[in-house]
Write a structure and sequence with these properties.
CATH class of the largest domain: Alpha Beta
Structural class: alpha/beta
Order of helices and strands: HHHHHEEHEHEHHEHEHEHEE
Strand order of the largest sheet: 1-2-3-4-5-6-7-8-9
Bound molecules: pyridoxal-5'-phosphate, iron/sulfur cluster
Oligomer: single chain
Strand content: 5-15%
Helix content: 25-40%
Number of domains: 2
Distance between the termini: 54 Å
Largest sheet: 9 strands, mixed
């Protein structure tokens, strides 16, 4: 197999080939471990793939250290034996979002921002994902189906921000995304449009020429929230796309999840913030894990989370410290974790 990511990012053939990379991101646990020279990984479970398919895009895979069973990027994607454990408090649908969905594809939980579920799949499957147990198939709403959601936004003047989420919205092609963004862009009371994407950093080739051109046609303020949990996820390839987006006026923010054995110490989180800033991305949220079935081994207990956060605060200026928060169903916003 050609090692695609060894080709420089400037090479257009590579840049336009994100769909091929996307297809190649599906693999089995044994294939993954073979590439990483970790055939006998003590935590791995081929069977856990049945709970949630394994997907790792090549650019992310390239950032995993070969031969290191504890690599923090590997642990985010590796199907593990512990996923089969039933742990009390960890459920299939911890956020119970259905009750906030007045219209298919739209979630209106917070007063002035709505979330559009513009895709149901991702390029990378994170084992801690709160959507890992969702029974959804690959599904794309048609333009006609979106009209109802768009009308809801048009008729709700209190909504001033629309968020594209998923799954990962960037798994859709440019025509589809920009059709939807143009519709939103035309609604007068919308001030900002936000895209939440882990694909932007795990498969940066996705930010192709067509995408960059597309965003130049959007008039509202545009925000991209990346989802990185560790500084090793960032590299020159990400720096390049961050630069191209910033040059076009896109505000870049990052949200992370506090994860056992991945980033559960102040040193790792400090490096993440420092690296993000170098790339022009500001830390936004640091979330406690959502209690989804199969992900309990990622949990960092609240007391320890607060201790880590206290140290983080002492390491970083305020503007590089993400807000430690948790999502509590029923609350009017994400809930900050206080230290006072
Ligand atoms: C997290 C979330 C938002 C965005 O919250 P912010 O605090 O504005 O980042 C909006 N809608 C839903 C349904 C969410 O889960
Ligand atoms: S990219 Fe986000 S939505 Fe997709 S699997 Fe990972 S955490 Fe879940």
């Amino acid at each position: 197999m050609i090692h695609l990511s060894s080709i420089p990012v400037e090479n257009n053939a590579y840049r336009d080939d994100w769909k091929t990379l996307l297809t190649q991101s599906r693999m089995t646990t044994s294939e993954l471990l073979k590439i990483l020279h970790l055939e006998n990984h003590p935590l791995a479970s081929e069977r856990a793939e049945q709970l949630f398919e394994l997907r790792v895009p090549q650019p992310y895979l390239d950032k995993i250290e070969k031969g290191n069973p504890n690599d923090p990027l590997l642990l985010q994607v590796l199907p593990q034996k512990k996923e089969h454990l039933h742990v009390s408090g960890f459920t299939e649908n911890p956020l119970n979002e259905d009750q906030y969905s007045p219209i298919k594809g739209l979630i209106h939980k917070y007063k002035n921002r709505v979330l559009l579920m513009s895709s149901s799949t991702c390029a990378i499957n994170c084992r801690y994902c709160f959507r890992r147990s969702f029974p959804y198939q690959e599904h794309q709403q048609s333009k006609a189906q979106w009209q109802e959601a768009l009308n809801y936004i048009r008729n709700s003047p209190q909504i001033n921000e629309v968020i594209l989420s998923g799954g990962d919205p960037l798994i859709q092609n440019n025509d589809y995304i920009f059709w939807l963004l143009k519709q939103v862009d035309a609604i007068e009371h919308i001030k900002r449009v936000r895209i939440h994407s882990r694909l932007a950093t795990s498969l940066p080739q996705r930010i192709d020429q067509g995408f960059l051109k597309g965003i130049e046609g959007i008039h509202k303020d545009l925000i991209l929230v990346t989802h990185c949990n560790h500084a090793n996820e960032l590299g020159p390839d990400i720096e390049k796309i961050a630069q191209q987006l910033t040059q076009r006026g896109v505000t870049l923010l990052n949200q992370s999840v506090l994860l056992r054995s991945v980033n559960d110490n102040a040193q790792t989180l400090t490096e993440l913030s420092e690296t993000l800033f170098k790339y022009g991305i500001l830390p936004y949220y640091l979330f406690l894990l959502d209690p989804v079935a199969g992900a309990a081994h990622f949990e960092v207990p609240l007391k320890e989370a607060k201790q880590i956060y206290q140290q983080l605060l002492s390491n970083l200026p305020g503007y590089l410290t993400p807000k430690l928060s948790v999502e509590i169903p029923g609350n009017a916003s994400k809930t900050p974790i206080g230290l006072y």
